[in-house]
Amino acid sequence: YEELTDPAMAVRLFVPLKQLLEKIRDFANIYVSGNRGSGKSTYLASLAFFPEADSLVVDIEKDFGVYFPCRQGEFRPLATRRSWTPEQERRLVTNLMVTKIVRRTLELIAAGVTGGKLRSAPALSQLRKFVGEFVPSPGLVSVDPLIQSELDNLVSTMVRVEMDEIAALASDAPDTGERDGLTLIRFFSVVRDTFPDLARARFQLLFDDAGVPYVPANVQRVLNDLMLSSNPLFCVKLSAEKLTFDFVSSLGKVLEEGHDYLERDISHILFIGSGPGGLRREDLEQYFRRIIEQRLEYFGYNSTNITEYLGNEQISIDRLLQLLAHQSKQAYYSGWTTVWNIADRTPRNLLELISEIFAVAGIEPSQVARMVEPRDQDRAIKTISEKRLESLSQIPGAIELNGQRLSLGRRLFEVTSAIGSTFRLYLRAERGGKRVRQHLAIERNDIGDLAPDADAVLRRLVTFGVLDQTKVAYARDDNMKKPLYVLNRIYCPAFKIGYRRDDHLRLSKGRLEQLLLSPDHFIRDGTRRLRDSGTEEAPDLFRYKDLP
């Protein structure tokens, strides 16, 4: 598994899903969401202009992408300070945001000109005049062209302006001008008039990982302000983990999905289903296969056919469930079909699983392709699954529950363990049936609001990709559509359960709150009858029960 930091390599290894890329490439304000590792950053970055890359996914003469990797902490210094009034904060952050966008755009253009990706401008008078508005008296400093080109001098000027404005934030009332979306419209108009290759370009401002904590809430509000300044010259696109970005402007306007912005949920688009929001199983399998083939070819492996290494489903899911229910030592997770299903629509999971399998089996690029033994595949897959489960406890931060500050990571680990353990108990209780059915999701029995503390835990489980809430389902009790929370399949091997979703664990408000707030009590009290049951079919213990 590789972490791509080289843009040239990232472009080379990028395998887009056509249906998804077309939705993200639209010139519009777009929020790219999805589970961790689903490819949010990759798809967003594919729209950016990287001067050092040999090829680009988009035509920069039509769509020029300005990329901001927010995870690097560039926007954290702009967090709210007590000495600022709301209006002062809005003005300061907006001014700095505009400065950053102008600086970054000029850096990209200058690098493009130097690298031969863009033609030089015939004249820079309009651009010089615009940049001069950012510089206090005595104005722009001229530099001998033999020392530094005029364009590079303008870039250096904007870098100094940005540094001075950030340094000035320490004062109680830093003196800044008044800039907003109209300033950016003027800037991009000047850019189009100045550089021949960009005369028809539209500019896409790309903010990757724009959720909390990388982009503070007050900076998010300024990004929302820019989204509301609808215009034909620039749009805003951002990626963020679920429930970490608030679509509220500086003036308190709640942005409307479908009107002010569009959400492109990768996990939802990659969902297997017959409806308009889902892919065919064959399409998703081929997409994942292309991702692996591209890497096997790039790194020089003897064969690019992953089934020559993993086989193509040595064991059926029905047989696997039977073996898991009986706790058989022969219940091996192995085969390409098993691996891409456990990856659960997440390329990062897929790459980690296959990398670990290759490492365990000692597969090297120079070797003739050979089949990895099912036992070795099983060992590697369980290793990744258990690491992923254990890594939940290492998530930093605290969460306040019942008036106590507790470790966020530890609570997420405990709840996830309770969910997976419950599903395993249900699977084992069905070991006498002809066709074993696997629970893999939690279904609400009612639609009442959860207690704030329980809701906070549930939201974090969604944010960190433990539970997927992209689907709703008709409840069996009253035939009403209610939220469905599906366990990420990457955790299935750690709990020794199957990856097929046959049935849902139906929980009332009280039982769900108990699971989220007291997972140890949920396991001890809620599943006692299930553990002690000698019946061949698992009883539904939570269907009508509630807490007093």
List the helices and strands and how they pair.
Layout (H helix, E strand, L loop, with lengths): L6 H7 L4 H8 L4 E4 L6 H6 L17 E7 L16 H29 L10 H8 L17 H19 L12 H14 L7 E7 L8 H12 L5 E6 L22 E4 H4 L11 H18 L8 H4 L6 H9 L10 H7 L4 H15 L12 H18 L6 E4 L2 E4 H22 L9 E6 L7 H12 L3 E8 L6 E7 L4 H4 L7 E5 L1 H9 L1 H8 L1 H5 L16
Helix pairs in contact: 4-6, 4-8, 14-15, 16-20, 17-19, 19-20
Q: What does this molecule look like?
A:
- By secondary structure, the chain is an alpha/beta fold.
- Helix 4 crosses helix 8, helix 17 crosses helix 19 and helix 19 crosses helix 20.
- The longest helix has 29 residues.
- The protein has a five-stranded parallel β-sheet, sandwiched between helices.
- The two termini are 49 Å apart.
- The C terminus is likely disordered.
- Helix 8 links the parallel strand 3 and strand 4.
- The chain is globular, with a radius of gyration of 27 Å.
Give the rounded overall mean pLDDT. Answer: 89
How many beta-strand segments? 11
Main β-sheet, spatial strand arrangement: 2-3-4-1-5
Q: Tell me about the biggest sheet?
A: 5 strands, parallel
